[in-house]
Amino acid sequence: MRLRTVKRHFREGLKNSWRNSWMTLASIAAVTTTLILVGTFIALLMNINHIAQSIEEDVEIKVYIDLTATEESIDELGERISTITNVQNVTFSSRDDELQNLISSMGEQGSVWDTFMQDNPLLDAYVVEAINPQDTMEIAAEIEDFNGVDYVNYGQEVVEALFAFNNFARNIGLILIAALLFTAIFLISNTIKITIFARRKEIEIMKLVGATNWFIRWPFFVEGLLLGVLGSIIPIALLAAIYNFLIGSAAINQFDFIQILPFNPFIWQLGGLILLIGAGIGVWGSVMSVRKFLKV
Amino acid sequence: MVNNFDIKVNDYMIEMQNVKKTYPNGVTALNGIDINIDAGEFVYLVGQSGAGKSTFTKLIFREEVASSGEIRVNGEDLIKMKWRQVPFLRRSIGVVYQDFKLLPKMTVFENVAFALEVVEESPKHIRKRVMDVLDQVGLKNKARFIPDELSGGEQQRVAIARAIANYPKLLIADEPTGNLDPDTSWGIMKLLEEINATGTTIIMATHSKEIVNTVRRRVIAIEGGLVVRDQQRGEYGYEA
Ligand SMILES: Nc1ncnc2c1ncn2[C@@H]1O[C@H](COP(=O)(O)OP(=O)(O)OP(=O)(O)O)[C@@H](O)[C@H]1O
Ligand SMILES: [Mg+2]
């Protein structure tokens, strides 16, 4: 395509939007609303995912070793565990280490355990980490049947609940995002239908004098693109401002185990994504409406 | 030894063999048309209302697709032609209608330039060519007018200027004088004659007994979707 043709398509696309300025404004408003919601969902999902991931990363399996196990069979067990696929690393933690950990994790109150120093009631253990935290449960189940294992612990309830919540949030979020996007595409395609309708005589004549379908389509794609891109400006600015405020606010920072994504580069990624989605629904909306009109 | 491959099989501007057209609603508009039209001819299509004249013209620039039979235009097989080639066929065919089909918000100049912008001519070429064709149809001094400021005959001249702007080999006119008074009609006829004199083939569907009987040309009469008469320097043959 020649440069002047590209210019021409942009000029015509802008003219179309300008001629139906009310419809254009209504569509932009609709896209703006949609993208604010979509952007919020995406920001939430990305952060939930991030938080879940950092918690998941700390998930580990404790394999407590039978009291009666010989040193040999303890070594054998360690070998066996490390050959399981998806196991990242296995470290041995003696019952004394375990007691030490327990005492230090309890802080002040830990001192009550001091009396046990002489007669340690804990068991030796292997600490197992999975390559992919999602495999934790499976690996734990496998180890449970090994010789010399007393019992296996990985905080079952917490981990399962976390995985379930993360999946649930992701699915619901994606469904909502899809529904919103669909609505926006529908609105854009309606606006463009109106422009096409207003120009149907022009299109008829263009075809008569030998315009290719692409030549006729382009201005409407430009119009769709314009609606989508203009509709994404306010959502990007708004979400950036809100995120910036949240990240500095005390409410979020009081839990040091929850870390939301840092402003930079997250907000750029989010902004880029919103812009892409805006442009995408704009073009898609116009593709849908133009297709029907240009059969011949 | 004679080299048969040098013989040009196909000189015709338009060739139709057993062409039939049935519309989706079941109406059969053409029911087996056989016709050849040479390059440079001036042909009248006559016949009663609903006979199939417009359908005949629409098949030629692929506004409609034949249901069966063979059509060649300037050597191109229209039955085998793909949709994306149709625009290029249309660039070699000018079309003029009874209702002019001008864009009311554009000036005369813009209406003609439109046809050249669509085929991506350079602005410089467009400017020159538009003024040339407007000169040819006698409207050079009205380039800045909008269609509503022109008479019917003048509007038809603009439509003709647009149709010939891209140097078509073939000009199709479907009742070009249908909305015009007799005097104005003669002016349009004179213009079409001039265009034909430059070598452009012209096919004109018309109900004007006066024109057909006065400016004698080949007459193809269609009735009930069939060619019932094909006559050089023929007469209109119906009561007007
Ligand atoms: N798009 C269409 N869909 C269905 N039927 C059509 C269509 N166009 C034309 N016809 C039918 O085909 C037949 C031929 O119509 P056509 O327009 O070719 O006639 P015509 O000779 O041009 O008539 P007129 O002199 O009134 O312009 C008519 O019966 C008409 O009703
Ligand atoms: Mg007709």
From TrEMBL, chain A:
Coiled-coil residue spans: none
Keyword Cell cycle: yes
Topology in membrane: Multi-pass membrane protein
GO cellular component: plasma membrane
Keywords tagged on the record: Cell cycle, Cell division, Cell membrane, Membrane, Transmembrane, Transmembrane helix
Domain of life the protein comes from: Bacteria
Limits of the FtsX extracellular domain: 59-152
Residue ranges of every copy of the ABC3 transporter permease C-terminal domain listed in the record: 175-295
TM helices/strands, residue ranges: 21-46, 172-197, 218-246, 266-287
One GO term (biological process): cell division
Localisation: Cell membrane
Function noted in UniProt: Part of the ABC transporter FtsEX involved in asymmetric cellular division facilitating the initiation of sporulation.
Family indicated by similarity: Belongs to the ABC-4 integral membrane protein family. FtsX subfamily.
Annotated protein name in UniProt: Cell division protein FtsX
UniProtKB/TrEMBL annotation, chain B:
Nucleus in keyword set: no
Pfam families: ABC_tran
Its membrane topology: Peripheral membrane protein
Localization of this protein: Cell membrane
GO biological process: cell division
Top-rank taxon, per record: Bacteria
InterPro entries documented for this protein: AAA+_ATPase (IPR003593), ABC_transporter-like_ATP-bd (IPR003439), ABC_transporter-like_CS (IPR017871), ABC_transpr_LolD-like (IPR015854), Cell_div_FtsE (IPR005286), P-loop_NTPase (IPR027417)
Any Gene Ontology CC annotation: plasma membrane
GO molecular function: ATP binding; ATP hydrolysis activity; transmembrane transporter activity
Keywords assigned by UniProt, alphabetized: ATP-binding, Cell cycle, Cell division, Cell membrane, Membrane, Nucleotide-binding, Transport
Record Gene3D superfamilies: P-loop containing nucleotide triphosphate hydrolases
Domain (ABC transporter) ranges: 14-240
Family of the protein in this entry: Belongs to the ABC transporter superfamily.
Subunit: Homodimer. Forms a membrane-associated complex with FtsX.
Functional description taken from the UniProt entry: Part of the ABC transporter FtsEX involved in cellular division.
PANTHER family from the UniProt entry: CELL DIVISION ATP-BINDING PROTEIN FTSE, IMPORT ATP-BINDING PROTEIN
Protein name per the record: Cell division ATP-binding protein FtsE
Organism: Amphibacillus marinus
Organism placement in taxonomy: Bacteria, Bacillati, Bacillota, Bacilli, Bacillales
